[in-house]
Amino acid sequence: MPSDLVIVYHRQPYEEVEVNGKIEFRENKSPNGIVPTLKSFFGSVDKAAWVAWKEAEDPSNPGFDRVVDIEDSFGKYTVSRLPLTAEQVRSFYHITSKEAFWPILHGFKEKYNYDPVDWPTFREVNWAFAEAAASEAAHGAAVWVHDYNLWLVPGYLRQMRPDLRISFYHHTPFPAADMFNVLPWRGEIIDSLLAADVVGFHIPRYASNFLSCVRSLRDVGQVPRTKVAEDMMSEGSALSDRTVPTEIHLDDGHVVHLGVTPVGVNTDYIKSLAESEDTDKLAARFRSEIGDGKLLLSVGRTDYTKGGADQLLAFERLLERRPDLRGQVRLLHVSVPANRNMTVYEPIQKELEEIAGRINGRFGSFTFQPCALISRAIPFEELVAWYQVADVAWITPLADGMNLVCKEYVASRKDGDGVLVLSEFAGAAVELGAAVLTNPWSTRAMDFAIDLAIDMPEEERRARIALLRSAVEKRDTNHWASDQLALLSPKDFGKQDEDAAPVGGETEDA
Fold first, then answer.
1. How confident is the model over 273-301, as pLDDT tens digits?
2. Band of pLDDT at residue 340, cut at 50, 70 and 90
3. For 157-282, where are the E strands, in sequence order?
4. Residue 124 to residue 147: CA distance in whole angstroms
5. C-beta atoms surrounding 136 within 10 Å
6. Among the residues of 434-489, which ranges form H helices?
7. What is the DSSP secondary structure assignment for residue 426, as one 8-state letter?
8. Which residues have a Cβ under 8 Å from the Cβ of 218 and sit 6 or more positions away?
9. What's the CA gap between 300 and 149, in Å, rounded?
10. Contact predicate 21/51, CB 8 Å
11. 368: which residues sit within 8 A by CB, 6+ positions away?
C-alpha cells in the first residue's frame, strides 16, 4: 500500500538488538530526539514510510531485507533500507559530507578537502534514496527529506515523481554565497533544492544566505520578504536579521516556500525527567560529590566547530586571573567524538586532553581537580541531573546550526535558577537573548562572559532563566515539525494527532 507521508533520513527509526542470534527492531529508548519527532507524524496519516541506509557487506544479497514493516507506539509504517557498502558509506558520508560539505557549511574554508571526494558515488547514493522514496509514495504524497548529505534527493525525486510534494529541511547552518560557492557542485545542489516545494531552516539568516546562493547562480527576480518576529531578533546575536525571504518564484511557475522554524526540545519529556525522584537522587549525589563550589558544565561534540579548545583556554585564563576561584570552581567538559572512525577529529581530541591535563597540573591538588574532560556520551537521564547541579551552562561553539544542549539546560532547571552562557554564533542565540551572549572568537568577550556568569546575583539569574524558559517552551519540537509540515500540506499535517507519542530534540546531525 503506497504511503501518504515518506520521511527520508539517513538514520533508521529504531534500534537493532541481537537476541539469540537474531536481530530485533526495538523502539528508541528515549523519546528525546529528531527520529521520534518525525515518527510522531505517522499517526496523522493512514500509511507512512521511512527511508534510511543500512550498511551491508553485499548489497546484491537476495537475503537482505530491503523493506521491513514496523509497528510501535507511533503506529504502523514501512522502513525502506538502502544497502550500502562500507566503502559507499565512507565516500558518501565520511568524506564528501564531512570533509567537503561540513567545513563549508560552518564557515571553515581552511578545513575544506576537495581532493578525495567521489562525486559520482554521492550522486549514486542520493539517487538510491530518491528511488526508494518514489517507490513508497502514493500519488500526491508528501516526502520530507532531511539534511545536507541528501542534497540531491529533491531534484532526482522531482524527475521521477512530478506529482509529489517535497520538503527539505536543513539541520546545519547554510552559508552565504561567498562561502558556499567554494563547492564545485554548487549549481547542481542549488537546482536540486529549488525542485522542492519547501526548504526549511532554523533561523532567518540561513534562509537569507540560501537566497544569496540562489541569486549568485540563477535569476529569480524579486523575492518577497517579511519582518522577523521580535522574539526571533536578539540584539546580542551575530545571526539576527530584521527581515526574512518567504518564497522564490522560478520561471517555470514553480514556487519554493522558505520555512523558518527553529528546532526545539521536548520540554514535557525533559520536565518529567527533571521532576522525577530518580533524577532528584542523582542530582543530590552529584552535588555531594563535587562539594559546595561552582560547577561549570559544557556539553558538545569533538569537532572544530564547537570551540572546545578555546573554551578550555578561557577556563585556564579564569583560574590565572582569579586566584579566589582556585579550588572553588570546576569545569565538567563533555566532548564526545562524532565518529570514532574519522581520523580528522583525532588532533582535536589530543588538544583537548593536553589543555585539560595542563590545567589540572597547574591548578589541581591531590584532593581537587578543576577540570574533568569526559569523552563518552552521558545517558540523557544523568545529563538532566547534571543540568540541575550546574551553576553555569557554558555553550560556546564557534559555529552551530542551532544547539539544543542550551535549551535542554533551560528546560531542566525546575528550580528557576542557573546561568546560560551562549555563543552568539549558535542559531539558538537569536531566540535566547536573555542568555549571557558572548563572542567565542574574542578572548576578552569570553573572559567577560564567564566572570559575569559566575558573579551574577540570584535575582538576575532567576529573571534571565524565566525569560529563557518561556522562549524554549514556546518553540518546542511539536512547534517545529507542525510548522514545517504545515507549509507543505496544511490540510493533512498542520496539526499533530493528539494521541501521538511524545517527541523531543537533539543536536544537529553529527
1. 999 999 999 999 999 998 889 999 999 99
2. low
3. 165-169, 198-201, 225-227, 243-245, 247-249, 255-260
4. 17
5. 26
6. 443-455, 458-474, 477-488
7. B
8. 190, 191, 194
9. 21
10. no
11. 327
